[in-house]
Design goal:
alpha+beta, 230 residues, 5-stranded mixed beta sheet, flat, 37% helix, 5 strands
Length: 230
């Protein structure tokens, strides 16, 4: 009798294969979706709102707008790169023109450290005047005289051009560098054909090297105080 009662309480045995097949079938069966639009708070459906929205205005091309520049395509840029438009290239490669005043002089500004030089070059016999004095008197050191004569020697115009300049600021070494820079720039304005020679020699580049400033707590820019163990 006990066995009969227990059998009545037990659920019907189901094979494991049947259980797995029933679960897979339920998972694979898609749920039917409703095609009717859901009502909104205002009483209008989403589909109705979409249909009643005004259509966007068609985009007007740039060419149709009066006064607008035509839009370039990738083909246009490729043709420009290949040399299709020769006008800009001709402008870039145009030879430089000499810049001279009414007296036939060309001007150039030179800078080095804290010194600034204003230099004028003109046809002559190779005389260099600095602040109203000759270069041999103003720059007594041979190294400084050699420095200011480098652009003239590189361009082979040492005996064909006179130099007149004024220089202020800094010391003699910085002033010599400023005069050399100014002479080089003035020669480029006087005769543009000399630019490649002066550029390759590095005379047209402004020398930006300066002395590093002293720091607080140090003897010099980076020299620290002497350490004492005892």
């Amino acid at each position: 009798m006990a066995d009969d009662k227990n059998d009545d309480k037990k659920p019907d045995a189901v094979a494991p294969e049947a259980r797995s097949s029933s679960k897979e079938g339920a998972a694979r069966t898609p749920r039917p979706r409703s095609t009717t639009p859901r009502p909104r708070a205002g009483g209008e459906s989403r589909g109705a709102a979409r249909t009643e929205a005004p259509a966007a205005a068609p985009a007007v091309p740039a060419a149709a707008v009066p006064g607008a520049a035509p839009r370039r395509t990738l083909t246009d840029f490729r043709s420009l790169r290949a040399g299709g438009d020769a006008a800009p290239a001709a402008t870039e490669n145009a030879p430089r023109e000499a810049k001279r005043d009414a007296k036939g002089r060309s001007y150039g500004t030179g800078r080095r450290k804290n010194a600034i030089a204003r230099v004028w070059v003109m046809p002559g016999a190779g005389k260099i005047t600095i602040n109203g004095r000759e270069s041999t008197t103003y720059f007594a050191r041979p190294v400084l005289r050699m420095m200011i004569g480098q652009p003239l020697l590189a361009s082979q115009r040492a005996t064909e051009i006179d130099v007149w300049c004024t220089v202020v600021g800094g010391g003699l070494s910085g002033q010599a560098g400023a005069v050399r820079h100014g002479i080089s720039r003035a020669l480029c304005n006087f005769e543009p054909a000399l630019r490649p020679v002066l550029k390759s020699g590095g005379f047209l580049t402004r020398d930006s090297r300066v002395v590093e400033r002293k720091k607080y707590g140090k003897h010099k820019a980076r020299r620290s105080t002497q350490f004492s163990k005892r």
